[in-house]
Predict the 3D structure of the following.
Amino acid sequence: MKLPDFKTEQWMNDYERQAVCNMTDTCVAPLSFSELMGFDHHHLLDSVTLDYGVIPGDERLRNEILKLYSSGTIDQITLADGCLQANELVMHTLLEPGDRVVTFTPSYQQFEDVPRSLGCEVAVLPLSEASGWQPDGSDLQSAFEKPVKMVILNMPNNPTGSVLKPELFSELLSLCRKHQTWILCDEVYRDPEMQSVADVYEYGISTSSLSKLFSLAGLRLGWVRGPEKLIHLINVRRDYSMISTGPLADTLGYLALLNRDFLLSRSRKRISACKAVVKTWLKKEPKASLVMPDYGTVSFLHYEADIPSTKLAQDLLEESGVFFVPGSCFDCEHHLRLTFTADPHTEEYGLMVLSEYLNRSGD
């Protein structure tokens, strides 16, 4: 199984540690370990035995995860080492060589390259910035002219932050129901106020983690929520690769979700404050535009300058420590991934530096 370099992740690996002003971190103000330990009012961690634990995941934790959905049982949830592995487990369990997969661009590279590595035929549908990063309805119809085993998307989308409009989502569900097509939806940026595909479609699979809105990317704790028969098949596969996430991670995740209202409120306030900064900046910066997302921590900033996004991002990092992921990592030039996770003053400073650079480039 051959895979190309994961461009976004390689960029982060190569450059993020040099950042003084990180404008592209997708995790909201990560908690410190001591902050997370502060939730352990009943000293649950004192009694944790460091064995393998409950293989599909601690039942208390799965019950708390279930509260992020409007239906289901804990037997429809299994754990993974982050959302990335949750996606991989689903794809490796369901996809076979020759299967047809539909996904979208710009989006997360995993959705396209992992199915290809498994021998699948992958149809990639473009998202249009002019329509708010939505697919064309006729493209959806055309994609289903041949049988489709799985549709893979994420909502909110990375890097655009977009969510399918209700009429397009309904059309997608209708097409998938007709063909009994699986929908794998990476919902790692989903606010629990949003509906989940796993709650509205019998072949819907939701993957997520504690990384983004719950501010615990370093915990590497994700999950799959899907039909019970699929979860059983995934659990069989997990025995070959990870066995379990372990009682320490499970207990820490349980403590976090017991405090989900606090964590979500904290994240929503940070995201709202950063969005306000970006909106103010956009009113004064004619060389930039943005489809402002309703949910999530990411957006895709378009800039007006005849400079490749890789060069722009490298220049900003070298000159001032301002760090972006360039649109080239998503095969979409003249864009930068901009997130709403920084301290608002940091967000304001980074945008000011970007403006100065864009103005110089026009001289």
The first strand starts at residue 21 and ends at 22.
